[in-house]
Amino acid sequence: MFVRRLRGFDRPTIARALPRAAVAMLLSSSILAVETQRAAAFEIFGIKLWGSSKEDDADVVDPLDYAVTFEVDTLDDDLKEAIENASLLKGEEERPVSGSLGLLAKARNDRERLVAALFSKAHYDGVVNISIAGKNLDDLAPDAVFDGPQPVPVTVTVQPGSMFTLGDVVLKGDAANIRGADFGLIAGGNAASDAILKAEAGIVRALKEEGRPLAKVTSRTIVADHATTTLDVTLDVAAGPIAGYGETTVEGTEAVDRDFTVYMTGLEPGRKYSPKEIEEARNRLLALEVFSSVSINEALALDPTGNIPMDVRVSERKMRYFGAGATFSNTEGAGVEGYWGHRNLFGRAEKLRIGGSIGRISDTTELGKLNYNASVMFEKPGVIGPASKFFANAKVSFEHPDAYDIFSVKGNAGISYELDRQQTVSASLAVDYSDIEDALNPEGKRYLLVSTPLQYAFDNRDDKLNPTRGFRALAYVEPTYDALNGNAFVKLKGEGSAYYGLGDQNRFVLAGRVAMGSILGAGLDDVPADRRFYSGGGGSVRGYAYQGIGPEINGKPTGGLSYAETSLEIRYAVNDKFGIVPFVDAGTVSAKQFPDFGTVKVGAGIGVRYLTPFGPLRVDVAVPLNPGPGDPSYGFYAGVGQAF
C-alpha cells in the first residue's frame, strides 16, 4: 500500500509525478487562469475589448515566440477544459516571452498551475510533463538557451490519473463537536481541493458567526492513500474568545471624510463581532461609489478591553465623471444622452448628476417632434443611520411618443433604507406638473399631481449587471391626487425576475420575468397619459412598436389601467466575452382595472451579448408572433445591459 503523509499545505517542490508534489497546490487552485480566446486586439474609446496588441508586446525584452502542443489523456471534457484553461503557456501562446529564461520560468509556473488544476478536480496521482525544444523541463539547465528556429516547440503532456475520494475525516480542538458532513467532509465524498478548502473556510466561518473573530485552523494533516485512491483529512481548529468590535481605523481616504467612512461601516464599538455585519459594511462602503476597493480586516489580537480592532483600507475613485451613450431601435428610433457627475460633492459621498437626452432622432426630421429630457439628481447617504440615503430629483421633459405629446416638470425627494443586504424600502413625496395631448384629450389637458411613492425591493442576485442566479422582486404603490382636476387614484405595480445558471461555469442561464400593474380609483381619461400602462418595445415585449400593445383610438395608443408582461430568456455563453440569447416575450394592456389575458401579444427573437466591465452590450432582433394590422414585421434593439 502506498500512503504518503503530507503535513500542511506548504508550497511544493515541483516534480514530474504528482505523488511527489505536496498538496500545498490546493491553495493554488483559486488562481487558475480563465479561458483565453485567440483574437486580434480591438479597442473602443481607449477600452480594449479583446485580444492583445502590438503595444502590449513592445515592452517584452528579447521577445521569443513559442508554439504549444497540448495533450491531455482523458475522455472527461470538463477535466480537460479545466486543465487547458489553467495553462498560461496555452492561453498566452500568441504573446512572446522575454527570452529563454522567460520561457523556462513560464513553463515551470505552468506546471504548478496544472498540478493545481488536477488537485482541484481530486486527481492526486497524475503526471505532468513539459518539454521545450524536445528536452524535458527537468533535464534543462537553469540557463538553457533556445536559439534555434522560432517558434520554439513546447509540448505539455498531462496524465490525470485516478479521481480520489475522501477517506477518514477528523476534526479536532474546538471543532471536535462540529459535524464535518455539514460542510461536505464525509467519507466517500468529494476530495477536490476546492471542496476541502471551502469546507475549511465554512468551519472557521461557523465559529466566527458565534462572535469569535480569532477562529482559525491551527494545523492540518493530509494523507493520500494511492492504493485506495482516498484522501484522509485532519483539521485542528482553535475558536478563540467571543469579542465585540474595538476601534475602527481607516487608511486610504483623502477626499472622503475619514470619520464619515468609519460611521458608514456601522461597526459600533462593543457590539458583538459578526462576519455578516463586516460583509455588509464592506458592501455599504462600495455602494457609496467613491471607493474602487474596500477591505475590512480584524486585528490579529484583542485589545486590552477584550474587543477586536477593525482595520479598513480603501482606494478612492475619481470623483468627477462624465459620459455619453446611445441607443437604437427600428421601432423606437435612435437616442443619445450625456451626463456629468460628482461622487463626493461635500466630502461625505454626496452624489450630484446632471444629464440630458434626445430621442426619436431617426423617427422624425422635425426638431419639435424629438424627445428632450434634462434632469438633476442629488443623493446623500447616512442621513438616519449608515443604511439610509436621502435622494432628490428634478426633471424637465418635452416628449412625443406615439401615445401622447407631453411637457412636464417633475420633482421628488425621499428616503431609502436598507433593511438588510437584500431588502430596501423607500418613500418619497413627488410633485408633477404636466400638459398632455393624447387620444382621449386631443385638445390637451393640464395636471398637477401630488403623490407619495412607496417601494419595497428584494434583490439577492449574484451580479446586478449580468446575473447567473438569484431573484429580484419589486412592489410599488403610489397614491396620487390631481390638484387641478380633483381626481385621486392609486397606482400598483409588482415585478419579479429569476435567474438560474446551469453547469459549473454557468454556461447556460435561464432568466425569467413577470410584471403586473393596475390603477384604481379613476377612469382612463382621468389618469394622465404618462401615468397609464403601456407595453411593447425593447424594454417589454420585443418585436412590437414602443407603446404599441393595448387599446387604441384611431390607431393611436391610449394606454391602459392595467397590464401584464412576461419574458423568458436562455442566455448561452459562447465564451467569456460573447453570448447568444434566444427569448420569448408576451404582454397585454387593458383599459380595465385588471388585465385582459385574452389579448396577449407574443414576440420572439434572438440576441447577441458582448460582456464589458460596464455591463453587457446588447443587440436583439425580434418578430411579433401574432401581429395586428399596424404592427411592424420585426424589431431591432441595441443598448447596454441585459433586457432584465
Kindly state the percentage of residues in helix.
10-25%
- Mean pLDDT comes to 88
Distance between the termini: 57 Å
Please report the total strand number as a whole number.
34
Main β sheet profile: 17 strands, antiparallel
Strand content: 35-45%
- Give the radius of gyration: 30 Å
Which blocks of ≥5 consecutive residues have pLDDT under 50? 1-55
Sum up the overall morphology in one term: globular
User: Structural class, from helix and strand content?
Assistant: mainly beta
Number of helices: 7
Key terms for this structure?
mainly beta; four-stranded mixed β-sheet; 7 helices; 34 strands
Brief synopsis:
The chain is mostly beta strands and 644 residues long. Keywords: Membrane, Signal, Transmembrane, Transmembrane beta strand.
